[in-house]
Amino acid sequence: MTGTTASTTTQRWQALGVCLLAGFMTLLDVSIVNVALPSMQQGLDAPPVALGWVVSGYALTFGLVLVPAGRLGDDRGRSRMFVLSLLLFTAASAAAGFAPSALWLVAARLVQGVAGGMLNPQVLGLIQQLFQGPERAKAFGMFGAVIGVSTAIGPLLGGLIIEFAGSEQGWRWVFFVNVPIGLFALAFAAKVLPKDEVEEGPRSLDLVGVLLLAGALLAVLLPLIQQESGAGTPWYLLGAAPVLLVLFVLWERYYRGRGREPLVDLGLFSIRSYSFGTALGMLYFAGFTSIFFVLALYFQRGLGYSPLQAGLAMTPFAIGSATSSALSGRLVNRFGRSLVVLGLVGALAGLVVTDLLLSTGPGAAAGLVVAAPLLLAGVGSGLVISPNQTVTLSKVDAARGGTAAGVQQTGQRLGTAIGTATASGLFFGAIATGGYDAAISIGLLVAVGFVTLALLLAVAEQLILTRRR
Predict the structure, then answer these.
(1) Among residues 62, 30, 91, 128, which one has the least CA distance to residue 403?
(2) Phi first, then psi: what are they for 116, rounded to 5°?
(3) What pTM was estimated for this model as a whole?
């Protein structure tokens, strides 16, 4: 368990600023790379399988290390883990930018994913540690804005970089841009992050639990990622996932029974707000992230938009998300998960209208036609992500904040992989029979379906809470 020395109000908000900057950089790399793939193919003569792993390999390693990294931060010190992770991410970004071959680039992206997965639980753990009450909600609101903006603005920023740096070498600057940002954040992190104090001494890490959980996640993520990358898909691994997960739960109970500290305190899931919020986040991210995947494909391949034009077409979502995320931090303590329900309704309405409009085949004007519904969907999304984060972690002891955040973010990564794989499979299947207009319609229906499931779960929790009252 880690503590922190007393810090001034100014220093706490400065520390949050550094955390948000680093979190923005790691989350931006999930989406910014998509529009740079043609540039990578041209510059490195990279095969399609390698390009697939540039995108999906990052997501794979990011998801695998979230829980162990959260636990290490709780036990060894979050500030220490933050600095180490940020240093590794910055170095991996430089290595990716200098990559002389596709294999080198894939390897650098895998390391980037590890560093990003190590860093993000520390951000959420530090927010839990530094803030309380309304201030914590406001901080989570700002982090929610970072999630929404980084995901939505990635294609636009990537398009701008390639527009100015050129199609052959522009992809390198998609990675190089992280280096000065990372160095800047490192310099300030040393000054403003709280000093770690290990109160009870470092505890041994549950290595068997780490291996069992990693095996279960790999059995789910690898088949989905292989499908996206165009390589052979080992679907048989999905059958091993529930077996490994059951073994993980049994081991964690046995390990705690021996008086040891397990990787994940399963008691977290007895907290209603945490268990419901984690499941809701997984379902929402399955729909949320698949939106940008299918829209980027539709705008660029179906309509012939440039990377910059495609990014601009999705900017209304980013604007709406950033605005409502900042506002939601002031409202969540008053309305709780009811605010999430409202956001889900708004996001769902915006997506349904976007789907209906694009199914009519608006042609080159599609970006303008869907600007208003994407803005509505973005506003709804901003009322979902950060309030759900706040409510989900509200009953969790700050000492377990990193581990709890790691588990929650692992659910989000699983949702992202499932949603993107489902949407991409149906999208490409529909192109052959109905063209891009039919493909975008069915691709968005996947997002609509997952957001609808998230809404039903949120309503179910509200009904349970009402009955208990």
Answers:
(1) 128
(2) -65, -40
(3) 0.84
